[in-house]
Amino acid sequence: MTFRKLVDEVQQLISTALFNLGHPGHKFELLDPPKPEFGDLSSNIAFELSKLYDAKPYQFAQEFVESYLSPIIKDEHEKGFLSMISSVEAHPGGYINFRVNNDTFSEITLSKAIEDPSYGFWDVGKGKRVNLEHTSVNPNKALHVGHLRNVILGDVIYRILQFTNHKVRVLNYVDDSGLQVADIIVAFKFAGFPVEPPRKPMKFDRYCGDYVYVKINELYLTNPSLQEKRRYILKELEAGQSEIAKFASAIVLRVLRDQVTTCWRMKAHYDLVNFESQIVLSDLWETTFDWLKDKRLVRLTMEGKNAGCWTIRPERQGDEEKVIVRSDGTLTYIAKDIPYAAWKVGYVNDPFSYREFSGQWDNTVLWTTTLDISQNENKHPEFASADKAITVIDSRQSRLQCIIASILSKIQQSDNIYMHLGYEPVSLSSRTAHNLGTTIDDKRSIQMSGRKGIQVNADDLIDLVKLKAHEEVSSRNPSYPKEKLDTLAESIAVSALRYNLIKYDLDKNIIFDITESINLNGDTGPYLQYAYARAQRILEKSSEKYCKVSLSLLNSEPEIGIIKVISKFDLVVENAARSLKPKIIAKYIHALATSFNVFYETTPVLKESNREVRIARISLIWAFCKCLEVASYLLGIQPLKEM
RNA sequence: GGGCCCAUAGUUCAGCUUGGAUAGAAUGGCUGCCUGCGGAGCAGUUGGUCGAGGGUUCGAGUCCCUCUGGGCCCGCCA
């Protein structure tokens, strides 16, 4: 909040000076100086304007500061305005550097952080309604690390958007009528696989994915008649009413519940699960197909290799036309995605009823669509027709997502109504692949494959990190009861994994390595939790409480360091929300924790003899904790009072 | 053949949107710091021709072009 105020004031100041100089509205930028000795905020205005005056940037800067900026500051100070800026100077490098008034700055920063219930809030969304789709894993297998990246990215985006006043609904789309489901149904119905896992306890999603799905794919190679069965099953699934379809539906629900259990374990939140089969069975496709024809976005191809198919015209030159309805009248994969996308943003009437699917970990209700009107529960939230749809799915789907986005953008002239939030997939390091029994020649990494069983299972991974966390916690706190150790280890494991999956840029291919993933030191989730636990211990042991004291006593570098970070929180949140980059919050919170750890090592609090100073430092720690709590919430990391 | 993404320290990555000050973290190696609030920490040190070449600019890790290396996508599969 506070840093934003400084920026505003400096902006205002320079604008006024530019007006006086005779260049009103001239473009300039304010940026963070790379070093503390350059002040708190810098402007490049001298580089811009010196050209016009045929002067060196430094020369111009000096003149500008002396004759235009300083007089205004002085004047305003006399009138009692501009409380934030304490000084301005021209640097030989050419920048004009501003310094903040530390006393006022600390005062406002800390009281805001401690007292303001909406600390960190910035209204980016203005109540805009967003349908955010993520996870959407085929319901025939358990989640692996790659899926976790999707879940966590999606969930952090959800948290950030929700926090910045977007009305977000999180959708998990279930492809229950596709080939992958058909595969395991073939296995159960025609290849003699038992429906119950032979070795209990084993999660059902795990059994279907790691065993049934892998084995049936091996059987296809030696038994072609099984492959024909697959076609048959697929048709049954799309028709929807047969015994096979009902059987499949039961299997899908069982797998889905197990998958969602893993996601809940990672503290992901959902609002709605919807099923592809229902989109096919509803009139959603017909309606959508009608307006596609109306708008002349599709055409019946008469000749060439796609004769008899309905196709979408190529978007760019060189692209091929895309079949959406086959010559036998059945729908392709992308065809099923178009009505879903149209439904998300309200381009078609909502054919669904809604009923409760389940409660979930955060005491909210997870809903599901149904075509059975009698099951509709009136109190359901509004799901269809959001102002914007965001789909989190990896970049291998870019081409298809691009086609969907371009179709929707042609309906109304709004470009951003449908957005694909892509990211590069997770692959396995050669070492990890080797540990899984796969040789990959001399390649650096290998793509995961559910069909071949080359993957790192998500539950296994959480358990593995948890085991390491458990060792660490119990060695430090041998007296903790069993349940407490377990809860703490779980929370630490989740924070380590969540942090690890969002700290990288979306366009970075994560090469996952098991050995590295269990590291709990350095730039990791537990580092943040540890800083918080240390801070909490001081607050717990202190008899002082936060109260209004002279915060000018907080003038050491470590103290000011924390205050500077805290003061920028809302700017960081705004930036993350606008650019949809969760990584930005991760970088911030790491900087926040580091600033505290530096303070902690250098500055005594409980042992400080001067009571005023002690109270000021306690206040600082309060503010730090508040800031870390809110930022951690955005990442889905739980701050721990002890660990 | 067409398209998308990546390349910065031994390793994993920030920084590129909007060009500007001595290119930053983490990790690894080495060295210090617990009879001081929790050492999952802190400090120091080591380590970089920012893939190559050209261009634009007073100024390029950042913008443009070409090339090289790596990943991915391009079916009447899903």
Structural notes for this entry:
- By secondary structure, the protein is α/β, with parallel strands linked by helices.
- The protein contains 22 helices and 17 strands.
- A 7-stranded mixed β-sheet has the order 11-12-7-6-5-13-14.
- The protein binds one RNA strand of 78 nucleotides through helix 6, helix 12, helix 13, helix 15 and helix 18.
Oligomer: single chain
Distance between the termini: 31 Å
Structural class: alpha/beta
Share in helix: 40-55%
Number of strands: 17
Mean pLDDT: 92
**Proportion of residues in extended strands:** 5-15%
Weakly predicted, low-confidence segments: none
Cα-based radius of gyration, to the nearest Å? 29 Å
State the major sheet.
7 strands, mixed
- How are strands sequenced across the largest beta sheet? 11-12-7-6-5-13-14
Anisotropy-based shape: globular
Number of helices: 22
Layout of helices and strands, plus pairs?
Blueprint: H1 2-21, E1 30-31, E2 41-43, H2 45-50, H3 57-79, E3 85-90, E4 96-100, H4 102-115, E5 129-133, H5 145-163, E6 167-174, H6 179-190, H7 204-222, H8 224-239, H9 243-265, E7 272-275, H10 276-281, H11 284-294, E8 298-300, E9 310-312, E10 322-325, H12 333-344, E11 353-359, E12 365-370, E13 388-392, H13 398-411, E14 418-421, E15 426-429, H14 430-435, E16 445-447, H15 458-476, H16 482-502, E17 510-512, H17 514-517, H18 525-541, H19 557-567, H20 569-579, H21 583-602, H22 611-635
Parallel strand pairs: 5-6, 5-13, 6-7, 7-12, 13-14, 15-17
Antiparallel strand pairs: 1-2, 2-4, 3-4, 8-9, 9-10, 11-12, 15-16
The protein binds one RNA strand of 78 nucleotides through helix 6, helix 12, helix 13, helix 15 and helix 18.
